[in-house]
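User: Structure please.
Assistant: Input sequence and predicted structure:
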Amino acid sequence: MINNLIAIQNFTSWLNSQNSFQRRTVPVTFIKYIKKNKPDFKEVFHFLQPLMTDPDREVQQGIGWFLREAWKINASSTENFLLEWKNTAPRLIFQYACEKMSTENKQRFKREK
């Protein structure tokens, strides 16, 4: 629930939109939400899972930006989520998500060969 006005599920149609910028808007909108409300991150991450395999660059940048901000608030939950996706999600998401992490920490999120 965002400011007790709108449920996260109301963004489902945007999550599945043909317009890549509308899909990007979902995680970018959630940045302010997580900073202000300290939500259940598992619920938010579960909702955003479809974007983790999105083929469009701008969506990958948006989800990466969201994950970077989520990591600043709740590092352990965000790191667990990133570890689940490290071998399947596009690398651009991880470049953005790990931008503020130490070099040693970033290494944990590199793809396994």
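Residues 20-37 form the longest helix (18 residues).
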